[in-house]
Specification:
Layout: E1 5-6, E2 9-10, H1 17-30, H2 35-43, H3 51-60, H4 65-74, E3 98-99, E4 106-108
Antiparallel strand pairs: 1-2, 3-4
Helix pairs in contact: 2-3
Length: 109
Amino acid sequence: MDEVKKGRETHEDAPWYPKAANMLKGEMLRHRVSAVMLSKMLRGVGVNLGPNALSNKIRRGSFTFAFFLQCMHVMRVQQVDFYMASAPIVSAPPGKPMQLIDDDEPAFE
């Protein structure tokens, strides 16, 4: 195993941190929520981070998806666009519907 570990993340994750940070910052801008406001809002779901610590966490972009969901929840974000201008990594073979794991119903046809 050649991965160099830092905490729970690997260096392979590092290119994704700016994308995660930009996505969260973008939603904060769209919903006009500052770090001070978000810090106060997150207390309601048990996340106790001061504004400076929160800003640092967001800037690093190495937060968990659970933390991202908590932020979306307290900001009352209904929908997030995960569009990235690149080809999908995996696609269904032509003529076969893509299926979710452990699901009998196709995700799309």
